Amino acid sequence: MKVKMSEFLVEKKQSIKKLIQILNKDFKYVSVLGTDSYGKKYIVQKTGIDVSDSFWNERGFVVRVYNGIGYSEYSFNELDENNIDRLAENIKHRVNDQIDKLKKSYEITKYDVIKEEKMEDSFLGEIAIPKEKANSQYIIERLTKMKDKALAISDFIIEAKAIFHQVHVSKIFISNDKDLYQSYIWSEGYITILSRKDNITRVNYSSCSGLKGPELLDEVESKVKDTADIAVRLLDAEPVKPGEYEVVCSPDVSGIIAHEAFGHGVEMDMFVKNRAKAVEYIDKPVASKLVSMRDGAKSANHVSSYLFDDEGVIGTDTVIIENGILKRGLSDTLSAMRLGSKPTGNGKRFSFERKTYARMTNTFFSEGKDKIEDMIASIKKGYLLECPYSGMEDPKNWGIQCMLNYGLEIEDGKLTGKIVSPVVLTGYVPDLLKSISMVSENVQLEGGGACGKGYKELVKVSSGGPYIKAKVRLG
């Protein structure tokens, strides 16, 4: 079933065009991004049920104009067709006043006028189960069933939390040359299990996500038993002995490595600010020849897939690493103009009230030709790493650290049944990527949660890859 476009944005379209027409008298470039996103989050656990509005809810507009030197923006959430002239005059006054003040105190970076091709296009996502048919009662009943199923698996399980989060995103982008709109639904679901024995408490989780509706609940339910079983096994887990090991990384762990290593590290606004070492290694080897890596709204069909980014640039499929060679980065429009390159459709905003940054979309290692069984069989002493929690990377110095929930011990090419937890994976990015010696056939992506730019500016992204075999430091 096709997702419906926001009626609010459709109704405001002519008013936006009128606003642009008026502003064109004073500014050489004018564009408007309109957003209307709404969703709900459902949490069911032993202690109760919580239903709340999504963190991602927003409704408003942002105007971008060329101010004669660079670009100014003005955001607002009320658009009355009877007051368009007043709004235009207010925007003109605010922009000119801001530039006059800045010129007195700062040297302002100069940009050319954005040149766009004539384009009209649209994208409507599809879901299997209409959100109207899966009301709150249906979702809560499904989540309650998952919670009860998990609690019944073992007496050691003291809490189970089932979560479903769905957001309907609608956006329009209008300028003199572009008339674009898109509407899609993304969903994410989690099952989190808490186990306890004596004075030991452990937690395990699994997640699912995608450009899907309530049908995602089936995927979440399918993960309940395995998630609970690992939560119980973690009660007997031992800490990993620090050292260097050969490991097999699950697709989720591969994804967090890709995200941190050459996701943040190749966001090209960091090139402009001289905060990324990657700029020195374009067209140079940074990984094993087995490694290729991609990002883009068109690279995959997942939570960060769209027709156009928040600057009206059509999404792309960007090859970041090709057979071990670093090829290019990810750019927003203004970073690309500064660097003399073409924007890749990675300009994203936290909301219509915040500025655009170069951000990841769907970031992942490409598939290889190896079998997971052969990868495990090739390891004398090491671990199968699973369940990432978080990661950090220093784009300037290429250090990486990933926090993982657990590793499954491998000895003489076989899983021993022993489990270690928690696990910290660290290293120098090129060393880690150049150590990759096997890559499995199938790519899997996951897009639960959010990605921050530093400590803020959250956006939806997905990451993943195949299973990879590498040599890493664990602690």
TrEMBL record:
Q: What biological process terms from GO does the record include?
A: proteolysis
Pfam families reported in the protein's UniProt record: PmbA_TldD_3rd
Residue ranges the record marks as coiled coil = none
GO terms (molecular function) for this protein are:
metallopeptidase activity
Q: Which domain of life is it from?
A: Bacteria
Q: Which Gene3D superfamilies match?
A: PmbA/TldD superfamily
Similarity section: Belongs to the peptidase U62 family.
State the name under which the record lists this protein: Uncharacterized protein
Write the lineage as a comma-separated list.
Bacteria, Bacillati, Bacillota, Clostridia, Eubacteriales
